[in-house]
Design goal:
The complex is a heterodimer of chains A (96) and B (433). Chain A has one domain: Alpha-Beta Plaits. Chain A is 29% helix and 21% strand. Chain A contains four helices and six strands. In chain A, the strands form three sheets. Chain A has a two-stranded antiparallel ribbon. Chain B has 433 residues and is of the alpha/beta class. Chain B folds into three domains: 205 residues, FAD/NAD(P)-binding domain (3-Layer(bba) Sandwich), CATH 3.50.50; 104 residues, D-Amino Acid Oxidase, Chain A, domain 2, CATH 3.30.9; 69 residues, no CATH class. Helices cover 39% and strands 26% of the residues of chain B. Chain B is built from 15 helices and 17 strands. In chain B, strands 3, 4, 5, 6, 11, 12, 13, 14 and 15 form a nine-stranded mixed β-sheet that branches. The mean pLDDT of chain B is 95. The chains are: A alpha+beta (96), B alpha/beta (433). Chains A and B meet through α1, α4 and β6 of A and β11, α6, α7 and β15 of B.
Chain lengths: 96, 433
Amino acid sequence: MTDKKVSENLDDKLYKLKYKTDSENHLVPDESKCLQCVEKICTIICPANVYNYNETEKKMTVSYEKCLECGACRIACRHINWKYPRSGKGVVYKNS
Amino acid sequence: MVSENKTDVIVVGAGPAGVSAAVTIARGGKKVILVERGNFAGAKNMYGGVIYEHAVKELFPDFLESAPVERFVTSHSYMLLDDEQSTTITYKNHKEMQNSFVAIRAKWDRWCVEQAVKDGVYFVPDTLVNKLIVEQGKVVGIKTDLEEYFADIVIIADGVNSLLAQQIGLRDEIKPKQTALGVKEVIKLPEEVINQRFGLNSKEGAAYELVGGPLSGMLALGFIYTNKNSVAVGIGACLEDLKVQKIKPYELLAKLKSHPSVAALTEGGELLEYSAHLIPEGGYNAMPKLYTDGAMVVGDAAMLVNNAHFEGTNMAMISGKFAGETALEAFEKNDFSVNMLCLYRKKLENSFILKDLKTYRSVVDILSTRTSSFLGYYPQKVCEFFDIFTTADGIEKRGKFVKFTKDFFRKRSLAELFKDGISAIKLVFGVLK
């Protein structure tokens, strides 16, 4: 299975989830650190593929609305200001 | 004003640990508020596991009458994977009472809170606690998005990430080595199909642990659980290993799901829900300080998980109960300081919780140094052995077994085999000593 195919599959999976999207982003990486970061582990470790780095624009995009609130990025990278979505917001699991 | 915003105990987090603490306190006649950031209890929760009856019975003795049990686990399978083959050992029992059952957290956690509310717990969903309020080194309350609220005791049950325990210095930043990332898919299948595929009747359930194959070379296990009308398939993989080996968790799960032996169990099903959660893996060595003046830490927030046995929900519930009992004693003596709350740790020490965590304190460390063998090479070799054992192809057996034995030692140097042997001995004696 190719990388791309699995990533597309992931979006289909996330699409099935219920979210109460917060209007405020709760995941704020320190972008000055992202510029120097070689590894960009957040783009790999996140189970919802929230983080994407655009090499040409040198910009990290954070699709916080897809976040599953697991905290993997917070522990793998020390340069993300990581909070929970505000009261009652974020993912709502029903069958897990 | 302050008196209106004050209660006896605040419990932060309505998972199994939090609800157990809250209900114990309410039954003891104290006022308790149970705060939950999700829309309902369980909305943020997922697990790769089961609920244990011994723990539930201590909190909700009559649970069988109304609890949302999916299936009782009657069949435990251990599946050793190679790329295209698998060897499975299944333990089945036919006892009248089972030891554990599968439940869906959105239903189970919610049910627990409903029982707690009946017993007097005041439940407040949709409320994120941003901070603990600390005055002169003592925890005195919580700060939410909207207001400040005060209590004599705050019980911290905010889960594996426990930002609150960290805020007040009870625990350090967790390291990637001390957590596993769990990702899971719940796949809808008709009840009869599940019964047929897993050899169950409608009340019976199956639990699988999977080792090797796509998960080789890292500290990772797969799991499969049967709900009534769905099957959960997932992995728990050490965050450090995912990080170092640069593996995307959903790709690893996709690989496991496409293994023919796994695919056969979920074939034709429709995805109901994908989810992810961290699992505390550090065990005894990674435990935070469990109490301070005015506060106690319970469940995943206290890293109370015995991962070798997939036990966590039971430790959560019983630690919550102990914290609740300790709180009640604290009210009796009117002492909310560490002098009193250390009783909570003593209760944990005298129970299976800290005894087991102590016993298993080095298991993960030892395993993590030998993942390529214990969780890769040996499962593969078992499958290869059975391949030879079961194949009739007109070629004499002796030559095949000689080659298998030679390969076994050639592909794994004597030094490595020796280290594996030492580790195996350490594992056994580490547990028995």
